[in-house]
Amino acid sequence: MTYCVAIKLNAGLVFLSDSRTNAGLDQINTFRKMIVYEKADDRFMVLLSAGNLSISQSVREILQIEKLKDSKNDEGTTIWNATSMFDAARVLGAAIRRVHERDAASLQQSGVDFNVSLIFGGQIKGEGMRLFQVYSAGNFIEATPETPYFQIGESKYGKPVLDRVITPETPLDEAAKCALVSMDSTLKSNLSVGLPLDMVVYEVNQFQTNKVVCIDEQNPYFKMLHNSWGQKLREVFDSIEDPMWNGESTTVPLMSQSSRNMPLKKISTPEDKLI
Amino acid sequence: MTYCVAIKLNAGLVFLSDSRTNAGLDQINTFRKMIVYEKADDRFMVLLSAGNLSISQSVREILQIEKLKDSKNDEGTTIWNATSMFDAARVLGAAIRRVHERDAASLQQSGVDFNVSLIFGGQIKGEGMRLFQVYSAGNFIEATPETPYFQIGESKYGKPVLDRVITPETPLDEAAKCALVSMDSTLKSNLSVGLPLDMVVYEVNQFQTNKVVCIDEQNPYFKMLHNSWGQKLREVFDSIEDPMWNGESTTVPLMSQSSRNMPLKKISTPEDKLI
């Protein structure tokens, strides 16, 4: 399993991925799931991958050389000459379809689904930043102000904090912190997501970044965040009063007149019928 | 979808279930998923169900009359005369198998899995409290001090807080609060889990309870908990410092010497090879 998250803000982009790959619990390895494509002062793109590792590695290999031709005399669009991130995402889709042509039938014969999912985002000079989620069929969707982030892999544990915090106006470093909390919750609950983490933070219109970090067990910030979050969450939990039942005096009773309108199904003797 | 959770503590048992059932997003209904079996001063049992509603309703119907015979002359064990919760859980398993015999083949012809999962717990006079998770095949597992709770249905969003708080020593009302926080996180993230909630809190050796409540949108305690939890979680998030990058002074740098040992895969020009 995998957990990757990418966030598109007005101020820039945040990418975060774990590095655990498993084929069963007894075959766990470390594979990095993030790759950066950079051409100075022209384009900056990041690819995150989840799903079958053989497929995602093939896609990454082919993406380097894939040419998308829309007509016969077309010279071909590549990720390096595409004039928009939309076209670059189409090239990625074409690379996935090429791997599908090559491998899908054989995989199916072995009972393996053609399963890969990707996040692809960045900026090409001449337009704003864009962020896409790309599916196994090579189709894709784009992040919007209403849904400014994408997750792939084991996404559920880390979703609540993203929903509570992220808007397009969130500052870049705060969004990076949010992505790390989201990852921390996922690491805690799912053994198949593991350190080290790769994080890239990109500032709008820079076409490069020096905010690239590999986070392992020794990283002081991640250690601090992990410990603080766990401890303070517990303090918040303790600060909320326990439920009081009827007969006890409280301003926020758990049992109230209005909530007794739907009595629970209760069978009190063997002879009772289901009600 | 559904979310149910049950917790076994030294002090008693907590059961909580939502009430949303859906067959596609355009067919959402309210069905209660909790049922209480009670025989004064003799036994107190609670059943929670998730999965295919037609199966779980059939199981509940049959459970009332199911007799488990271990030998030819055996009078038959029912949930009303079983001398242990283990035997009562076996009766429940037998009820599931009876529904399986009746319906599984037809369901399979329609491409529907025989999918039901149940939590069954309580106390029968003569032994301590016990809590079981029962599967579609009628087999079951029992909660232990190391794993004192079970969840069925949409379990991921609500798992982290249970893991952080619950131990066998947790007081009963605190565990009830924890179950409600767990449910609140699930409600926030999954549309197919919905109010009202049913909650039962059982105190050890009582063989009855008056702590039974149906919680709807108007419940003052649940409203308070929902608002406080969301707001305080955000305060905790804000109280943790944002990551600082290299060059800036901080005691907990995100980028440190030790974390730069594994450089990220970076392709800087079209000619670069994948490294």
Q: Overview of this structure, please?
A:
The structure is a homodimer of 275-residue chains. Chain A is of the alpha+beta class and 275 residues long. Chain A has a single domain (3-233), classed as Aminohydrolase, N-terminal nucleophile (Ntn) domain (Glutamine Phosphoribosylpyrophosphate, subunit 1, domain 1), CATH 3.60.20. Helices cover 29% and strands 25% of the residues of chain A. Chain A is built from five helices and 13 strands. The first copy, chain A, has helices at 53-63, 85-109, 159-165, 172-189, 220-239, and strands spanning 3-8, 12-17, 20-22, 28-30, 34-39, 43-51, 116-124, 130-134, 140-142, 149-153, 197-203, 211-215, 265-267. In chain A, strands 10-1-2-11-12 form a five-stranded antiparallel sheet, with helices on one face. In chain A, helix 1 packs across helix 2 and helix 3 (159-165) packs antiparallel against helix 4 (172-189). The longest helix of chain A is centred in the middle third of the chain and has 25 residues, at 85-109. Chain A starts with a strand and ends in an 8-residue tail after the last strand. The interface between A and B is large, with 89 and 89 residues. Strand 13 (265-267) of chain A pairs parallel with strand 5 of chain B. Chains A, B: InterPro entries: Ntn_hydrolases_N (IPR029055), Proteasome_sua/b (IPR001353), UCP009120_prtse (IPR016545). Chains A, B: It holds the Pfam family Proteasome. Chains A, B: Residues 251-261 have a biased composition (Polar residues). Chains A, B: This is Peptidase. Chains A, B: It comes from Rhodoferax aquaticus.
